[in-house]
From TrEMBL:
Annotated source species: Ameca splendens
Location in the cell: Cytoplasm, Cytoskeleton, Cilium basal body
The protein's name in its UniProt record: Intraflagellar transport protein 122
Limits of the IFT122 zinc ribbon domain: 187-232
All residue ranges annotated as the Intraflagellar transport protein 122 homolog TPR domain in the record: 18-133
Keywords: Repeat, WD repeat
Lineage: Eukaryota, Metazoa, Chordata, Craniata, Vertebrata
Repeat listed as a keyword: yes
Pfam annotation, one family: TPR_IFT122
Location, primary (coarse class): cytoplasm
Length: 378
């Protein structure tokens, strides 16, 4: 109910905004929104903070589209607000855990979220987000899941920070008792961090951000479990327009059943095994996976660029496209495990494992990220 009330207020606010087409008034509106978002952060309403930052980002994108003089500034704001929206969106789970440690939490999801957040907090920490709470949650979940080395690391990092008294005892006990555990992380967890482009097992924490340590391809996360999705972003070769790309992919080539047979039943604990034998070894048949190779040892990221013929070889069901409005560019993603069903929200372009998304939409009647109602047409 609270959520609905909030939403209708904001919708009213936005319809009021859209009555003013002058960029000057829209800028005022952005200022008001920034203040309201700031309040949500100060009051620890991180769920709202995430949502408001998302709204702000879209408002900036609108201004950037309409007003050329402000385009550069507004697109930078768009990027920054999109990033902050996600940080607050995930942080609410950590806050809920540290406030109510005995209520039910999914250890794997919390573990993934803590790592995602820490990978993104290496430069600066946005107001309200607590590194102590994140490391504390990470230490606890790592221990639970057998990532003992990571748990030790989290406890060591905590010792360097100012710890609130309510955590002191738990952290002291935890950092003592973790010493009786093996000094390594569970093999399953390490193998679960495989890069879909180059098959490198990645470390559980990476101060370079959410990218592969070897090929530097960005990881694409599910916006609910924060597992890495089997997707690789690709770009169009010079001169290919979005419309052309779309029509080439839409020609619907017959799809080989190779991947299907192997990637079948990708649920729960089967995932590790299936990722290994169903993963990246059908390079010969697939012109796209051939494009994924790159010069080893180079320090710069080499994006996957595809030609018309590679686009023609793709099946529509393996491709996800974030159709950003202008002046942004569309973003293309190719699934490497076609039987892992992925759903992308048509409004915020966040991606989810389909079964997670369906469950979340049932619970909230809207997208958990941007709150787009499910009955709204695309
Ligand atoms: Zn890689
Ligand atoms: Zn959404």
């Amino acid at each position: 109910m609270l959520l609905k009330t909030h939403r209708s207020n904001w919708l009213l606010f936005f319809s009021y905004l859209s009555a003013f087409h002058k960029a000057g008034r829209q800028n005022e509106a952005v200022k008001v929104l920034e203040q309201l978002t700031h309040n949500a952060v100060v009051e620890n309403r991180f769920n709202d903070a995430g949502y408001y930052y998302w709204m702000l980002s879209m408002q900036c994108l609108d201004i950037g589209r309409e007003c050329e003089e402000q385009r550069k500034e507004m697109l930078e704001k768009f990027e920054r607000f999109q990033h902050l929206a996600e940080l607050y969106y995930v942080y609410r789970s950590i806050q809920r855990y540290t406030d109510e440690p005995f209520s039910s939490h999914m250890p794997e999801t919390l573990f993934n979220i803590c790592r995602f957040l820490l990978n993104n907090l290496t430069k600066d920490v946005p107001p309200g987000i607590s590194k102590v709470n994140t490391l504390f949650a990470l230490a606890k979940q790592s221990r639970k899941l057998g990532a003992y080395k990571l748990a030790r690391y989290a406890y060591e990092k905590l010792q360097e920070l100012h710890i609130p008294s309510r955590f002191l005892e738990s952290i002291e006990l935890g950092s003592l008792s973790i010493r009786s555990k093996p000094f390594h992380d569970s093999e399953d967890l390490i193998e679960g961090m495989m890069c879909y482009r180059c098959s490198t097992n990645n470390p559980l924490l990476n101060n370079q951000g959410s990218v592969c340590i070897n090929c530097r391809q960005s990881f694409i996360y599910s916006a609910s479990s924060y597992e890495v999705l089997p997707l690789v972003q690709f770009y169009l070769e010079e001169g290919i327009s979005d419309e052309e790309a779309l029509s080439l992919i839409d020609l619907e080539v017959p799809h080989t059943d190779e991947g299907n047979a192997r990637g079948h039943n990708m649920v729960g604990n089967d995932m590790q095994a299936l990722r290994i034998d169903g993963g990246l070894d059908y390079t010969e048949e697939d012109p796209f996976t051939a494009k994924m190779s790159f010069e080893q040892g180079g320090s710069t990221f080499v994006p996957v660029k595809v030609s018309c013929s590679v686009l023609r070889s793709m099946s529509r069901r393996d491709v996800l496209i974030k159709r950003w409005p202008k002046p942004l560019k569309w973003e293309y993603f190719r699934s490497l495990l076609p039987d892992v069903s992925i759903t992308m929200c048509p409004s915020c372009f966040k991606m989810f494992h389909s079964e997670d998304y369906e469950l979340l939409v049932l619970q909230h009647s809207c997208c958990p990220y941007c709150r787009r109602p499910i009955d709204e047409p695309n």
